[in-house]
Amino acid sequence: MSDWLTKTLTLNTGAKIPIVGLGVFVSRDPVEQAKATSWVLTALQAGYRHIDTAWIYGTEKPVGEAIKASGIPREELFVTTKLPWNHTKRVQWSIDQSLKNTGLDYFDLYLVHWPHSVAYDGPRNPDGQIKLDETGNFNDTWAEMEKVLASGKVKAIGLSNFSIKTMEELFKTAKVMPAMLQVEMHPYLAQDELLAYCKEKGITVTAYAPTGYAVVREDPTVGEIATHYGATPTQVILSWHVGRGVVVIPKSADAGRQKENCQILNLSEVDVQIINGLERNQRICNKPDEFGNVSGWSMERLGWM
Asked: Is 110 a catalytic residue?
């Protein structure tokens, strides 16, 4: 095993992004959000230099507090946040709010969190369904993202939860090629076609929910490979990602697991092919509801079919 916290990939902007980062998603509970300060700090103290948060996670402030407490120079860190889907018509305001939340002068990467545009005054209807704003569109949102990039408030811009279908639509008007696409990706959802497309376009890919949670970690095949290497299932899965040239942002509030998660293996080609064989196009983090929708958009509209 080797510690991959110092290993990087190069974005199409020329910037370096650490290939292993810390995801900072928590529940909507403000108490749990506030707790993030302590475990983000332990990750920074352990050597993590890539932190992935989002406005909608409610953890921008804790991330900023942890960075300040760490004493690590800002230029040594790579910090990502995301434009929420109910701010798509107020991008300039939203980036300023995110900067204020963190106390940072800039972000290294700013992502459009979803292709959806959702009502600003409350993202859900009384029945609990997502309140979509069909007057918004991601082409206009991206034009505003390009202005944010030009302002220097962010060093790179990118996308989250987009597909080949939605990116093709975006590219009809985009002047700046996204530097990053962040999507759910794990051995049960390998997204080979999407990954190849992004590599062709020069877009780096980040996997969220990279281990596939317990569903994939407890797969007997993954367990057998882990035993062979004297490693954990999580280390095996993260190593598989890194071998594909994919950035990973596992989330852990446990200091021990944070250290484990950055120990990457050199998997044999045979084991890589075995893991590849687990693909079943199964979404675990963002699976469709009983109507075949994900947060108000159909799988077809998302381009996830």
From this structure: no
Mean pLDDT of 257-271: 95
pTM of the predicted structure, to 2 decimals: 0.95
Out of 48, 57, 188, 208, pick the active-site residue.
57
> What pLDDT digit, counting tens, does each position of 236-263 carry?
999 999 999 999 999 999 999 999 999 9
Predicted local confidence at residue 5, as pLDDT: 86
Q: 3-state SS of the chain? A: CEECCCCEEECCCCCEEECECEECCCCCCHHHHHHHHHHHHHHHHHCCCEEECCHHHCCHHHHHHHHHHHCCCHHHCEEEEEECCCCCCCHHHHHHHHHHHHCCCCECEEEECCCCCECCCCCECCCCCECECCCCCHHHHHHHHHHHHHHCCECCEEEECCCHHHHHHHCCCCCCCCCEEEEECECCECCHHHHHHHHHHCCEEEEECCCCHHHHHCCHHHHHHHHHHCCCHHHHHHHHHHHCCCEECCCCCCHHHHHHCCEECCCCHHHHHHHHCCCCCCCCCCCCCCCCEECCEEHHHHCCC
